[in-house]
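User: Here's a chain of 84 residues. Predict its fold as tokens.
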Amino acid sequence: MSELKNNKNDLSHVQKIIIILWLSFVMAGIATGVFFSVIDPEALRGCVTFPVMSRMGVYTVGFLLFWLLTAASSLLTSYFLRGK
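Assistant: Prediction complete.
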């Protein structure tokens, strides 16, 4: 019977996705800062075969990759934790 009651503390799916994207955005910013504090974008030119990019372009691509990685990790964790 208690399962039929609508719990006002439950979050909608949209709210959960927004929370995951916001937290992964923050973590991607931190990861980008730490990563590029240690590794110079010019040092990456010998390791990857991307077209020539400015430092800002490398920072942007790095941030987006970190955001994608952290969002995917958080979404998978949320998916596997939901109860059925």
